[in-house]
């Protein structure tokens, strides 16, 4: 429903009054999860799970109430990249209050424990498996599984609006932030545009959007991909001579190169040879390959193979040493366990084989750049946090800093270090333009996505940002 500008303010005031009266008595539509298999005792936070119907898609979510003041703290919508990676990534590995006990894993159902440096200390977090076909989200017709960048954005926006207006209206007055990482930087930015467009059109109820948070975000194909070459050179992965040769032969543009550009193509092939065995998600960590045939059964072996970076060790080596992807493997065992699914109230028969990242999505990449979206958003009074790990070759920090500069914002706090417990946690710079405030932060020593490697430092970053403190 859209009202004319003349009576919009009155309608908004009426909406606020009705919501305040209504929120005291309304019950959540999701199901409260008080305990989960593998966790000792009851959960020390409120976790709700449920589905929201969006056309022919059943979008699954985990909602965790703020551990601070749920009715006053912001609501953060969060979904993961891929595309096709479950929001479970965010919950268990990045910003949620749960973590796997990987050190003492000895087979069977993985154990989880309460992780204190969770973003739920300061915000209500709504994790959604998006697009449909991701995690526990499913479609009721085969054709509904066909998705794209633009379809994902519409799907997430419709999910959010329905969740806030029909399922949990008591949170409509809370400040709203949109959060996404990696490839979801594309669709996540479009989601924000949908919200601002409808708000500007006077849609009722109005979503109380305050800002957005993007981690290592895919933004512009040319900038992101070109930055991989520059980053590889700066980090010493390719020689000065090879870099300068490629820079000249390719005229500084390293995307969409064909064999017709013989010298450029040859130089880039030499560069790829230099970096092919580098772990792109964290250049200092080993690129693991599978060497042990059946360490903990078929499900763990398949999980590691599907993540391509497996586990280079024999079963006797756990828990003394494991690759980063070992933690991913545990999620397959956990989420496919019958007792876990019952605890989470997963609809029986909807998802037979849960995958951390569904690589078989019917997905169309129909947006190559959302830079113009950011330019338009920079004219609005939003609070924005963009961050990168400085050891990430998947979405290098160099490219992120480049596209931010294209926005032509005014620097209000120039490049400086930011600290956690007196130690340098990274570097930050703050921009502003007509009420739009963008903070960029690097996380020292972190990869892709940064929270997986520096979870406590990223918590401190979020805590300061959400409370409007300088990072």
List keywords for this structure.
twelve-stranded mixed beta sheet, 16 strands, AB_hydrolase_fold, alpha/beta, two-stranded antiparallel sheet, 13 helices, single chain, 471 residues, Rossmann fold, signal, serine-type carboxypeptidase activity, 33% helix
What does the model show?
With about 475 residues, the chain is of the alpha/beta class. It has helices at about 5-25, 90-95, 150-165, 185-200, 220-235, 240-250, 260-275, 300-305, 325-335, 340-345, 370-375, 395-405, 455-465, and strands at about 30-35, 45-55, 55-65, 75-80, 100, 110-115, 125-130, 140, 145-150, 175-180, 210-215, 360-365, 385-390, 410-420, 425-435, 435-445. The strands form three sheets. Strands 1, 2, 3, 4, 7, 8, 10, 11, 13, 14, 15 and 16 form a twelve-stranded mixed beta sheet that branches. A two-stranded antiparallel ribbon has the order 5-6. Helix 5 crosses helix 12 (about 395-405). It is globular and about 60 Å long.
